[in-house]
Amino acid sequence: MRLLKIVLVLVILLMMWEKIKRLEERLYELRKEIEEVEKELEELPSGHLEVKTINGNVYYYLRYWEDGRLRSKYIGKFASDIKEKLLKSEQLRRRLTQLKEEEKKLSNIIDKIEKIITDY
Fold it and tell me: CA-based, 20 to 30 A from 72: which of 54, 78, 97, 105?
């Protein structure tokens, strides 16, 4: 009976260790993906597109914040390329927010587990 309890405790500990290992692996994957998304975002423009009509002609400007000031950069009469890049940038920023939220949750869980283990 006593041996059975010991074996049961060992099985539970092994299951917990495997779960912790999976959590740590997922945290590593998240951090790696965050790094990749941040690197990709560096290559894309930030801000938004502003359209101005002057004397019946349409002109596109990229509006963005730099050094605490709102800046404008003339794009031209056609902006399909920059529109695609801004859309991709927006999607990546949303994904980055999701990844960082998940990273924070996992990190907190792992920290709590480590605290429980070190307290004993």
Answer: 97
Q: What is the three-state SS of the chain?
A: CHHHHHHHHHHHHHHHHHHHHHHHHHHHHHHHHHHHHHHHHHCCCCCEEEEEEECCEEEEEEEEEECCEEEEEEEECCCHHHHHHHHHHHHHHHHHHHHHHHHHHHHHHHHHHHHHHHHC
**Phi/psi at 19 (5° precision):** -65, -45
Sign of CA dihedral 87, 91, 97, 99: negative
- The pTM for the full model equals 0.77
β-strand partners of 75: none
Phi, psi of 70 (to 5 degrees): -80, 120
Q: How far apart are CA 9 and CA 26, in angstroms?
A: 26
Report the distance separating Cα 75 and Cα 66, nearest Å.
17
59-90: per-residue pLDDT in tens?
A: 999 999 999 999 999 998 888 899 999 999 99
